[in-house]
Amino acid sequence: MIKKISLNLAIILFILPLGSAAHYIVGIVENAKDGTSANGQSIVLWNPAVGIQENVSDIIGPAGNSRTNNIYMIDCELLPSGCNVTNTLSLKVINNGDNYISQEKNVSVGGFGYDIVENITLNSPPNITLVNVDDSITSPQNEIDLIPAETKEVICSAIIYEYEGEESLINATGRFFDNVQSNYDSLEDNNEHYRNNSCLIDKNYGGVNEAAVYCSFYIWYYSNSENWNCTIEVTDNLSISSRGSDLSFINPLLALGVESVVTFNLTKSDITDEAILDVTNYGNVKINLSLSGYAFEQNDGLAMNCSEGEIRNIPVENEKYNLTNSNSGDITFEEFMISYKNLTSYPAVNKFNLEYRKDDLLNEATKSTYWRIHVPDGITGNCQGNIVFGAVRAPGD
Ligand SMILES: [Ca+2]
Ligand SMILES: [Ca+2]
Ligand SMILES: [Ca+2]
Ligand SMILES: [Ca+2]
User: Fold this and answer.
1) 395 CA to middle of ligand 2, Å?
2) What is the per-residue pLDDT across 84-117, written as a single tens digit (0 to 9) for each?
3) Cys bridge to 231: 1, 24, 125, 245, which one at CB 3.0-4.6 A?
């Protein structure tokens, strides 16, 4: 290797004009360890005492001053403030847009017409492979099932090969976003974009050049049902980053919540006051409602069973609902019949169009439903019954 340098320098010196006032800073840039050639990269020379804004550059290899593979040659006298013996100058390969750069090297200006700089090696960006994003259930692959009213952990992982060694890995971040409604640079939003700015780097994984990266995301139940993209970005000690990504589908989640107990009050007439039951969408699709009722078991034809009296059962059709309008106050039997719809033993699907939650701060995905019961003569005591609420995916979601 040393022999090769002296040979190249002999050629360089031969072509230097005699008596020139130039002072050449010369050196070798070795190809990156991933095989990328140093030829064609730009190298800059500056005096750190003055600042890098004042610099001279060269192209490494045949296209530059040296006309020789991997070698650069810069006349430091071309620096606006010149160069003198005992000056210490700095050099580095700068980013041409392909993310190949080098660390800085220093050289002292000597009394001869040239100085040789210690070899520079082109840095390799971290190489990201095997990006994978999924929840804890990995079969079938690439499907994420959310949990009603809660968050679900999604893990995005990757394998990194760092040519300068695993200790050169400084930071890993991840973004998980709806690949249709959002993108890598969009803002965070629980419906479509999540970020993890400090993912775990496991250097124990593999050999000295390998590491595994794990990014956790806690995904809310109202995240869009779409293809989602996880992109992991890994940064090395020269602040050079690489990205890798994987897709997974978030399945539709049909879920709703209602209060577990509602009380119907009977005051003046044999029709109860209006009871209000709020229905909340705890999934990620627009829903309609399926409704049915029973007293003891499904399909028993009853709305309620009562503790006292001659007749102890209320037929299912005596319980009625309105899914859009409240009709509060005292009403006549005719108004009751017109304004409300009969509950049935078999589930009946009703248009409800309850959108899923979009507001990250406040749960707005709630709508009221209105209920009354006509209580037949001869019933006293306490009555108990069940209403079964089901979520059905609404058309046009
Ligand atoms: Ca590197
Ligand atoms: Ca899965
Ligand atoms: Ca390792
Ligand atoms: Ca939102």
Assistant:
1) 26
2) 998 999 999 999 999 999 999 999 999 888 999 9
3) 245
Give the neighbor-by-neighbor strand order of the sheet with 302-309. Answer: 313-315, 302-309, 379-384
**Cα(201) to centroid(ligand 2), Å:** 23
pLDDT per residue over 323-379, tens digit each? 999 999 999 999 999 999 999 999 999 999 999 999 999 999 999 999 999 998 888
The fold for domain 127-250 equals: Immunoglobulin-like (2.60.40)
Ramachandran class of 95: left when φ > 0, alpha when ψ lies in -120 to 50, beta otherwise: beta
Tell me yes or no: is domain 256-393 CATH 2.60.40: yes
The number of the ligand nearest the C-alpha atom of 34 reads 1
Asked whether the domain spanning 256-393 has the same topology as the one spanning 2-121, the reply is: yes
User: pLDDT tens, 167-177?
Assistant: 999 999 999 99
pLDDT in tens, 121-150: 999 999 999 999 999 988 888 999 999 999
Compute the distance from residue 174 Cα to the ligand 3 centre, in Å: 20
Could you give the CA distance from residue 378 to residue 260 in angstroms, rounded to a whole number? 28
- Centre of ligand 3 from the C-alpha of residue 132, in Å: 19
Which ligand is closest to the CA of 191, given by its number? 4
CATH 2.60.40.1120 fits 2-121, yes or no: yes
The string of pLDDT tens digits covering residues 218-233 is 999 999 999 999 999 9
Q: Given CA atoms 290, 296, 298, 301 in this order, what sign does their dihedral have?
A: negative
Whole-number Å distance, alpha carbon 147 to ligand 2 midpoint, is 12
User: How much distance in Å is there from the Cα of 5 to the middle of ligand 1?
Assistant: 26
Tell how far the Cα of 168 is from the centroid of ligand 3, in angstroms: 11
Domain boundaries, the chain: 2-121, 127-250, 256-393
CB-count burial class (<10 Å; 0-12, 13-18, 19+) for 89:
buried
Q: Which amino acid is at 292?
A: S
